Every structure is written in structure tokens, then in C-alpha cells.
Amino acid sequence: MSTVMQVKPEAALAGGSCAGVRVCLAAQVPDGGSHRVELPGRPALAVFNLDGQIHVTDDRCTHGDASLCDGEIEDGVVECPYHQGAFDIATGKPVAAPCSIPLRVYRSRVDAEGVVYIQLEQ
Fold it and tell me: pTM for the complete prediction?
């Protein structure tokens, strides 16, 4: 499922002074699942819900042109649907070949209204 959201700076992320970018609502991400989000002018994002913790990464596998939102998620690891390479969702570290390049992970937070924000480099 894809959602197109407008990129616009919002409230600062907890523990930092950089403005965040609104990504989606946490309620859109099923427990143990993922939600693909497209922001204008940026690569697609994968938003994961691991036991109530929200994690945001690039959606594209670093080994091939596959959406990680289409992959299997188990024990905090997402498996690429093309070649079964895998990544640790929280760290982006590749944990199964043929993936060897880490996945980009974004610092994220969920506000009191359940909106997910990420920090982008300036």
C-alpha cells in the first residue's frame, strides 16, 4: 500500500533540534508489518511496526530493485522478496546474503496524536 504525503517540516524530533518530516500515522502500520510511503522528491520509505516500536528505512533493497514492504518480517528482520537477502530493521545491517550494503535507517518519533515523523539531513 502506498501513500503520498507532502514533505513539510513539523515539530522538532525528541532529543534534537532538527525539524521532522511527517511520514504517516502509526495506525496505518500493522503490528509486525510494514507500510510503504512515498514523499515527493525522495526514495520511497518503509515504515515498520515491531511490537509497537516504529522504525523507518528506505524501502528499496540495497542489492536489487525490490520493495522491502513486500518482504517477510520475522524477529526484527525483513527479507527481500527477490533474492532472500535480509536486513535488521532497527539498524539496517545486512544479515543475509546477497545483501552486503546497509539499509538507510531514519531517526523517527511518534507524537501524541500518533503521527510518525523522521529526521532528514539538512
Answer: 0.84
pLDDT tens-digit readout, 96-106: 999 999 999 99
Give the Cα separation of 108 and 86 in Å (integer). Answer: 21
CATH number at residue 88: 2.102.10.10
> By the 8 A CB rule, do 35 and 5 touch?
no
> What is the count of structural domains for the chain?
1
Domain encompassing residue 15: 2-119
| 3-state SS, residue 68 | helix
Q: Enumerate residue ranges in the chain where pLDDT < 70.
A: 1-19, 122
